[in-house]
Design a protein that fits this description.
mainly alpha; Growth Hormone, Chain: A; 2 domains; 17 helices; globular
């Protein structure tokens, strides 16, 4: 009986989301299920193209620069062309680009192509986030972004695994074909969706709207704190696994189990959680989630047993769920007419910048501070971001779910 009640509550958490959001989630799932070139790009370049490890690392940085440009351009175009057009064009162009990339040779040509394909691919993200914000409306926005995260996570669970099979079998060409064809398939689904995704981002309206989003000090402060949180959280993709293997002696299989726990908690718990808190001020939960993630990382030097590390992972995942979907909802609440794409483009840019900076900054700090000094420092860094979110919460509308009016940069800096 309890299981039936839980299943009913779980299904009820997904109720009320518009059909368009489900179709766009399908697009994301199909697209991300083929996302494998980026994960295996260094291996491909070193084993198939004769690049050194350093040269391959530089190419990954080029990819990151392309994603930064794509994040901005995708948001800018969404306000002028509509989200549907940008999503479809990004998927189709990047799909063709992935296939062509697999046939190219030469450092200069590959560098230019990697930058362009990354730009085309990443321009999808801000347009897609904008479309979700428009489709779900204010009341269902948090759950809409949770559905988007769920589609992304499920897709990423498929892509790298399938890519690993291709790489292990020596079929590197399959990586590019799979990534390209899934992007083209996702473009075909997007093209068939009714409407243009222009309810809040009408073509040509950006030039006639209010002041630039760069004058919204509260938004910029929030994105600055979110950048710090993402720098902290992205250590899970680098120094975290390095520490667990080299210092704690965990086998790769146990590290993989921790990631599985993270993914299962998100799939099973995040949507019901968002259902419960969607009418609350997102900042209330973002600040608390940031504290949880910070404490989970800071405690690692004292987590000697696997059971304790598993518990810390569960705490970290709980914090993750309280940060990222609510942050999308809060940022979407800052939009003004004709500026939705620009706002969500800045939001996407924040993550792209963090993904570029986090690996280098994390490994440099890890080497300088040592394993036992690094994690408390990471936790302290996160707690400072949580304090920033708390200030925004207190200076805003308190318990109100509304994010409050835009304020000049100078006024917000004075408050902080």
């Amino acid at each position: 009986m309890q299981m039936k009640n839980w299943i009913r509550r779980y299904a009820d958490a997904f109720s009320g989301l518009p059909g368009r959001a489900w179709w766009m989630a399908l697009v994301v799932l199909v697209n991300r299920s083929g996302g494998m070139v980026f994960f295996f790009l260094p291996l491909y370049l070193t084993s198939q193209k004769g690049f050194s490890v350093v040269e391959a690392g530089r190419m990954v940085s080029v990819w990151g620069l392309g994603s930064l440009a794509g994040s901005y351009i995708g948001g800018w175009l969404s306000d002028r062309l509509g989200t549907k057009a940008v999503q479809a064009a990004s998927l189709a162009a990047s799909g063709a680009g992935f296939i062509v990339l697999g046939f190219l040779d030469g450092p200069a040509v590959l560098t230019a192509a990697v930058f362009l394909v990354s730009l085309l691919s990443e321009s999808f993200r801000p347009a897609n986030i904008t479309a979700f914000a428009e489709a779900c409306g204010e009341e269902r926005r948090a759950r809409g972004f949770t559905l988007l995260r769920l589609a992304n996570n499920l897709g990423f669970a498929v892509g790298p695994v399938l890519g690993g099979f291709f790489a292990a079998s020596g079929c590197y060409a399959c990586l590019f074909w799979a990534d390209g064809l899934t992007s083209l398939a996702a473009a075909a689904v997007m093209i068939r969706l009714p409407g243009g995704g222009r309810s809040a981002s009408r073509p040509g309206s950006a030039s006639k709207s209010g002041p630039s989003v760069l004058r919204d000090g509260r938004l910029l402060a929030f994105l600055g704190f979110l950048f710090c949180v993402t720098l902290m959280f992205c250590q899970i993709f680098g120094t975290w696994s390095l520490y667990l293997k080299n210092v704690r002696g965990l086998a790769e299989s146990r590290i993989g189990l921790l990631m599985t726990v993270n993914a299962l908690m998100i799939v099973l718990m995040e949507m019901p959680l968002m259902k419960r808190i969607e009418r609350e001020n997102p900042l209330r939960f973002i600040r608390f989630g940031t504290v949880l993630v910070a404490l989970a990382f800071a405690s690692l030097p004292w987590m000697g047993r696997f059971a304790l590390i598993l518990a810390a992972t569960a705490v970290m995942t709980t914090g993750e769920m309280m940060i990222f979907s609510p942050s999308s909802s809060w940022v979407a609440g800052r939009v003004t007419e004709g500026r939705t794409g620009s706002v969500m483009g800045l939001y996407s840019l924040t993550f792209s910048m963090a993904l570029v900076v986090a690996p280098a900054a994390g490994t440099w700090s890890y080497d300088r501070l040592g394993p036992d000094g690094f994690w408390p420092a990471v936790g302290g860094f996160g707690l400072m971001a949580a304090a920033g979110f708390s200030i925004l919460y207190r200076k805003g509308n308190g318990k109100s779910a509304q994010p409050g009016p835009a304020e000049p940069v100078e006024a917000v800096l004075t408050e902080l």
